[in-house]
Amino acid sequence: MNHERARNLSVPAPCLIDSGVVVNKTDMLRLLQDLGQVRYRHLQDDISIAEGQGLVMEVFADNQQATLVANHTLYINVYSFDCLEIGSTDADGSYFDLVQDNRRLRLMPQSDPMHEQMTRSLNTATLEAMVADALSASWDACLDDDRNFLE
């Protein structure tokens, strides 16, 4: 079999829609980095050890650092986990389970990324309009000052 034909027979990349298991660390990073505010539950052998609410401050991949959950903040290292399971329940809605052996860190998003993106876009547009107004007013003031010198 030649090289070109072997490439055509390669397995396509996975496609997960609202459920499934993610093992690729880059894919895990992409899924988690925009979570924002979450409810979390730490499970050991399917027994809830701790739970709370927090803000995902950072998601990273570094085999020398820990995943930290404290003071309502989460710093998630995807290397702390074997995989990420995506799912949903009637009670919790969508969730992301970070799994390592018999331990799970379940993250349940409390914010809507679509709504946050729209708000971010609106805030950017408002800020741009304010800057344009301020610059225009500044230029008008400069022109007025120039006229005073000419008179």
Layout of SSEs?
Layout: H1 3-8, E1 20-22, H2 25-32, E2 37-44, E3 47-60, E4 68-70, E5 73-77, E6 83-89, E7 93-100, E8 103-109, H3 113-150
Parallel strand pairs: 3-5
Antiparallel strand pairs: 1-6, 2-3, 2-8, 4-5, 6-7, 7-8
Description:
This protein folds into two domains: 3-111, no CATH class; 112-151. 34% of the residues lie in helices and 36% in strands. The protein has three helices and eight strands; from the N terminus they run αβαβββββββα. An eight-stranded mixed β-sheet has the order 1-6-7-8-2-3-5-4. The termini are far apart. The model has no long low-confidence stretch (mean pLDDT 85).
Summary of the model, kept short:
By secondary structure, the protein is of the alpha+beta class. The protein is 34% helix and 36% strand.
List keywords for this structure.
single chain, alpha+beta, 3 helices, 8 strands
Strand coverage percent: 35-45%
Low-pLDDT sequence parts: none
Give the SSE order as H and E letters: HEHEEEEEEEH
Please give the radius of gyration in angstroms.
24 Å
What is the averaged pLDDT score? 85
